[in-house]
Write a structure and sequence with these properties.
heterodimer; A: 48 residues; mainly alpha; 46% helix; elongated; B: 457 residues; alpha+beta; Jelly Rolls; 3 domains; 25 strands; membrane (chain A)
């Protein structure tokens, strides 16, 4: 196994470990929860 | 069965000393009986050693070039000790020059060390001729070589040392080359013969240990230099496929979700904010994602603000989120249009186990206000739009618990694929640079990325 293959395999294990942790802690950077109450926004169609 | 006979090694050629007729210097002939010419190390005269009288063929005096490998020096390559006995400098018609050192071992014969300043190759003359597989490919055994340099003349510019043929400055052959990663197949033709040589690319460390040479330029790559990324990319894609399967299995392990509660709540026609509480909501996992979905079936040209507060009954820990369902429609010069959705879905991450209440503050809104004439009352009144009481505006809130976000899966795939993508781009750049020297059109990935301008050229 070449050094690059080994490093990539190590990287993959790290990513898989993070994926498992994100599952255990049910975490995501894209979760909406936690936004401040009273968040101001503009309503109405925007496509025109 | 015939009796076993002991293998007899050929007798090692003796080292012979000659006196140079030009300068009188003592010239050592290291492969006596094999070499037919030798160049005097003192005056650079070429001597014909097949003539007992050591006839002087030609004589020239040039400033001695500083050779990277001194003639007479020995080095071990692939387990065999070789002595450098001859040096040639050659150049092609297009001006590219390279050096060739003739190596000798009395039991293994001759080899060539070839360099163009970027790396070293060990060449061995073949006793079999390769055969064409197709127009582009030459086969040697079961190994395919791709054409790289077409037939062009190569001229000897400088010569030093001893050789197994009568070599002279100005001697020309017509050479062509085929390559595969790590080795090159070269054909040389002259009026009398065709010879084939296979050159194997040597590792710089191996050459440094054998002959103490310095590392050459590493860019652009040599014609037969293997891409440093090609070797691991194949295995890397297999690892990626394995990881994809693993993540899919993990999704099945973490991805289960279930609706835990739901409620249906009327929306105030006058647009005032209302508050309802759903609960208790029992969350059993250590941590979970809580997804809250709101449906407003009668929503049209308006929106519903939804403020969610998830409160842990035991610790009073609060998790907040905001959502909105908005839906608009109309008609203009382009025809009818719609925008938005009557459904809103949000997620709260990392909610610990416990019993929760979900407090929902919600408020219906109209996008455009208009008036209609009330005949019964004889006056114009504001049109409530979708908030009309007869329309029974309501919001349906559902809550479900789970563990895994789909985004985590895609982020993981992106992170897994990123090194492969970078490796692939670097491999393509390498292969393009490598094939840029070729006399033929690029092949493989280098061909895929060839621009239309290149095609026109």
């Amino acid at each position: 196994m070449s050094t690059r293959t080994f490093l990539y395999a190590l990287w993959c294990l790290g990513v898989a470990a993070l994926f498992v942790l994100s599952g255990i802690f049910a975490w995501s950077p894209f979760a909406e929860g936690g936004r401040a109450h009273g968040y101001s926004r503009i309503s109405g169609p925007t496509h025109k | 069965m015939p009796p076993e006979t002991e293998l007899q090694l050929p007798a090692a050629p003796a080292v012979k000393a000659l006196a140079c007729p030009a300068c009188g210097g003592s010239v050592a002939l290291r492969a006596a009986g094999y070499s037919v010419s030798v160049v005097c190390q003192y005056c650079s005269s070429i001597l014909d050693v097949t003539d007992p009288q050591v006839k002087l063929i030609t004589e020239y005096r040039q400033a001695a070039e500083a050779l990277e490998i001194q003639l007479g020096s020995r080095g071990t390559l692939r387990g065999i000790e070789w002595e450098a006995i001859g040096y040639l400098q050659r150049s092609a018609a297009d001006g590219g020059a390279w050096d060739e050192y003739l190596l000798f071992n009395p039991y293994h014969g001759y080899r060539w060390l070839i360099t163009d300043g970027r790396g070293w190759s060990l060449g061995e003359q073949l006793t079999v001729s390769p055969s064409y597989s197709d127009y582009e490919t030459m086969m040697l055994g079961d190994r395919a070589y791709t054409r790289f340099y077409e037939d062009s003349s190569a001229r000897v510019n400088y010569v030093l040392g001893e050789f197994y043929w009568r070599v002279a400055v100005g001697e020309e052959v017509v050479g062509a080359d085929w390559v595969r990663p790590g080795s090159m197949l070269s054909r040389e033709k002259n009026a009398h013969e065709v010879s084939w040589t296979r050159s194997i690319l040597l590792d710089h460390k191996e050459m440094a240990e054998a002959f103490g040479v310095q590392k050459g330029a590493s860019w652009p790559p040599m014609p037969h230099q293997p891409s440093p990324n090609a070797a691991w990319l194949g295995t890397g894609f297999k690892i990626f496929a394995g990881m994809f399967l693993l993540l899919t299995v993990l999704i099945l392990a973490f991805g289960g979700t279930s609706w835990v509660t739901a409620g249906r709540f009327p929306i105030a026609p006058d647009g005032t904010e209302r508050t309802v509480t759903l609960g208790p909501i029992h969350l059993g996992h250590l941590y979970q994602r809580v997804e809250i979905r709101a449906d407003v079936p009668r929503l049209e040209n308006g929106w519903v603000d939804l403020d969610y507060t998830l409160v842990d009954r035991k610790t009073q820990q609060v998790y907040e989120a905001y959502g909105a369902a908005e839906r608009y429609s109309g008609s203009d010069s382009d025809g009818p249009w719609t925008e938005g959705s009557r459904r809103s879905s949000i997620s709260v991450a990392s909610v610990p186990a416990g019993d929760y209440d979900l407090v929902v503050d919600y408020k219906g809104n109209r996008w455009n206000s208009s008036t209609t004439w009330d005949y019964a009352r004889g006056m114009s009144v504001e049109d409530p739009g979708w908030l009309n009481q007869d329309n029974q505006p309501e919001v349906v809130v559902e809550v479900r618990g789970g563990a895994l976000f789909a985004s985590s899966f895609f982020i993981a795939l992106l992170l897994l694929g990123l090194p492969l993508l970078i490796g692939l781009i670097r491999h393509i750049q390498f292969d393009k640079a490598r094939q840029a020297e070729s006399d033929f059109a690029p092949t493989g990935f280098a061909a895929l990325t060839q621009s239309s301008e290149d095609d026109e050229e």
